[in-house]
Amino acid sequence: MNLKNNPLKLAIRRLLPTFAFCLLYFSLMGCKALQILATSQEWSENYTLIAGTTCNDPAMIDGNLETIGETKYLEGASKQSVRGYMVPSEGVVILPEPKSINKVVIHSQNLQAFDLFALETNGNWRHVQEVKNMTERRLTLNLRIPVYTSGLKIRVEKTSDDDALRRQNIQKIRGVSMFSGHTKALAKINEIEIYGFVQSAVE
Amino acid sequence: MGLAWIFLTGCTILQELQESNLKRQQENRVRMKDRYVTFEAPDDTGVNVSGDGLEIDSTHYKLSFGPDLHQHPDYDTPTERQQIGHGSLVFMESLYQFLHQIFGFEPKHKIHVVLHDIYRGTKLMATTTIHAQNRMQNGQIIKVIQGIEMNFPLNMFSERPVRAHELAHAFTNIYLLPAWFSEGIAVWVEVEYAKGKDHRNVDLNEIKLTLDGLNAAQEWSGDLDAGADALTQWRYNYCYTIVAEMKDRFGEDFYLKFFKLMEEDKLYQQLPGNMPTSFLVYYLSQAAGEDLVPFFQSLKFKIQKLSRDEIIKAIQQANQTLRRQKRNDESEE
């Protein structure tokens, strides 16, 4: 048997460099994956306190729980119309750079239901989570899948002040509803906090 | 060799993709900040809150609550007033910085903000008043600003474009501007910076005339106490369009130049009454670097071309008349 011309050996010779390269690559990747798995998960600082973070009411990101900021009504629909009176309000936070976000904490006096959106790279807002029943003044949202984004938006669906505002601004005259102002109250938000994980290897 | 080439090319492509992605994200952030009019929290608002929460002070404002708010469910306890009031001033301080950047100057007085449930019998009217007094200084009568007061019903205070509109008045009305120009500037800030949707650009050639054949915008007193008339909305839109048109024609820094010229000259302080449009156009022309009298005349404004000497002479004559009247009043007493 002439081993020199053995096709199996030739094939092994040819594939050896590729195999060695792949082995090196996977071992390196494996190390990295192991390193990530071996890191302790420590919460980052509150990203909203980073210089350059902006909000449509800065009282919501001033780091002071004693100040109340308010969400703002969506602009667009004519104000003096039923549609204009029914628009929801929003709280928008823009970070100076994209961050991987794992947790959002909201301190509010009257917020009951809202939708959380994240800003995508194409400029669209992606729906992240719906909160239907916020009963406490402090709500912690632990995101199962981290969101990598530079902006978060809260669209207010319900507040505890809505009923009173509706009673004030909708009057029934001969069975016809007459609107004289907004029907959804602004959310009073003391603070929005945004956190990710800090990666530090376990010693 | 081939592998190295593929590796290097792959790296370059990845790097380019990453850079373009970062650029796109940066553009998106700027667009969103502009669209939602977001602000950074001010470093130090210098807020002092009174124990009963009825008076709150910050670096540039004093906030108080009208008597009809003391019974309001959202403001009837000191804690509520303190927390909402403090938060409102954080917002207003950010808005102040925003307008300071636009105009390049700031008022010297603290702005007194008064919140009401109902103001002047309505929830739909906010006002800004400049309190000025005539004083004798070196034999000349000059106007001295005593204070600036903004009054809002809560309903309007919650709207960012309205706050920006009124704050623009607080900044610029210290120059005792003609009403049409003052409203034009305020709507310009409201629409183009605070993204308000209540007003829009109109065609400058579609002029509404008074019975004297003059532009109805120039005759506007800006006072809404008597109620809005059929031309009110057009006047807001038209005055805004003139202000925006001049900025488009003469550049981003046009109004920075204009207010700087007025401030350096300080002639507005010596005017006996409100500023006439001819006086205003003198400064607008200076800032533009061209004579704007023909432009305003083409819009049917009643104005004349003034030189600085003519302005000073008119001021001196008016002040002489004022002094004579004052002497007569004193001798009668």
State the end-to-end CA separation of chain B: 106 Å
Architecture of the largest domain in chain A, according to CATH? Sandwich
Cα-atom Rg of chain B, whole angstroms?
25 Å
Tell me roughly what share of residues is in helical segments of chain A: 10-25%
Tell me the span between the first and last alpha carbons of chain A: 56 Å
By secondary-structure content and strand pairing, the structural class of chain A works out as alpha+beta
Overall mean pLDDT of chain B: 90
CATH topology of the largest domain in chain A: Jelly Rolls
**Approximate strand percentage of chain A:** 35-45%
Greatest chain-chain contact: A-B, 43 and 37 residues
Strand content of chain B: 5-15%
Q: Describe the sheet with the most strands of chain B.
A: 6 strands, mixed
- Note the quaternary state here: heterodimer
The low-confidence parts of chain A are: none
Instruction: Give the total of beta strands of chain A.
Output: 12
- Largest beta-sheet characterization of chain A: 8 strands, antiparallel
The 3D shape of chain A can be described as elongated
Secondary-structure-based class of chain B equals alpha/beta
Write the layout of secondary structure elements.
The complex is a heterodimer of chains A (203) and B (333).
Chain A (H helix, E strand, L loop, with lengths): L6 H31 L1 E5 L10 E2 L13 E2 L1 E2 L8 H4 L3 E20 L2 E9 L5 E7 L6 E22 L2 H8 E4 L2 E4 L8 E8 L1 E5 L2
Antiparallel strand pairs in A: 1-12, 2-5, 3-11, 4-5, 5-8, 5-11, 6-7, 6-8, 9-10
Chain B lengths: L1 H35 L11 E2 L5 E3 L3 E5 L12 H26 L7 E6 L10 E11 L2 E14 H4 L2 H13 L6 H15 L38 H19 L3 H12 L11 H12 L4 H6 L9 H25 L1
Parallel strand pairs in B: 3-4, 4-6
Antiparallel strand pairs in B: 1-2, 2-3, 5-6
Characterise this structure.
The complex is a heterodimer of chains A (203) and B (333). Chain A is of the alpha+beta class and 203 residues long. Helices cover 21% and strands 44% of the residues of chain A. Chain A folds into two domains: 3-39; 42-159 and 186-197, Jelly Rolls. Chain B is built from ten helices and six strands; from the N terminus they run αβββαβββαααααααα. In chain B, strands 1-2-3-4-6-5 form a six-stranded mixed beta sheet.
